[in-house]
Amino acid sequence: MWTQIFALIVKELLAVLKDRRSRFVLIGPPLIQLLVFGYAATFDLDHVPIAVYDQDRSAAARDLVARFSGSRAFQVVATLDNGARINSLIDSRKVAMVLSIDRRFTRDLLRHRPAPVQVIIDGRNSNTALLILGYAGSIITDFSTAWSASHGGPPLPAVLEMRARYNPELSSRWFIVPGIVAVLTQVVVLLVVGLSVAREREAGTFDQLLVTPMRQIDILLGKGLPGLLIGVIEASVTILAAVLWFHVPLRGSLGALYLGLILFVASVTGIGLMVSSLATTQQQALLGAFLFMVPTIILSNFATPIANMPPLLQDLTQANPLRHILAIVRGVFLEGAGFGSLWPHLWPMAIIAIVSLAAAGWLFRRRV
Prior knowledge:
The protein is of the alpha/beta class. It has 14 helices and four strands.
């Protein structure tokens, strides 16, 4: 039995490697998504264009402006002599923020009174506006603390001291790149496994496979195991890229990480086999795979926090294997997690794998 299954596995691997479209699925999308998510998909703000309207024109005001221009987050692209251009600059998106310093700025500082500084932000993108406001507030607070210390003023009543655990530099790349390991693995496994039976049906060789001495369970294993093998190899390559190319630290247990990856790939393999059993053409298999991928990514905590979703959707995410593997991958990479802390995500994924593979076997028998 295992000799026949091994022969079918070799046949599937050769079919994937020889087919130009299948080779593209293995190389093209993972490479493109790794580069796009690794470099372009970021929550950090760098070189935000701002304009400065300095009505005070004093040494203190120049010091504050220098702190903004010297920050990596901001880039001064315009200096205004009056406030008439503020609206036009923001409307045309030439600047995302205008720093307006009141003419009484230095006088109020010397009198140890609150000195008015206004930031006018483009609020069309609320998330970006909140980030800009946070960066600007941090720079102004640092300026105020330094001024009070050097001019004998009263210390600020409360000073925020921030320490970030697991990600000291608050780099969004450390959050996004580990998630790519799971997302790319799901994309590749779904497409490879989903196209397997559909490709045989289109080529007219599936009926020939059915008249061989192999049982249906043997055919199912021969179709599913290559996807599992390819998925684990794809995940390993992405892990190496995350550590060696993007310099994301890998702090936790490799054993726990690979156990989670195997359970995840088994879950996705079962779903891919279900798609492949239902599809009669490769186009239908592709559509079915993408129909599954989009909602799972949205409901996975990859970019949108699950805690912000309605309670019903939060409960539904428990059946999403991508949600659990993201918690495992990020836990191992950033938190140094091991088997004990990841167990709440390992056992649900094992159940999902069993259910999906069993459902794939039932569908496969019904369709045959």
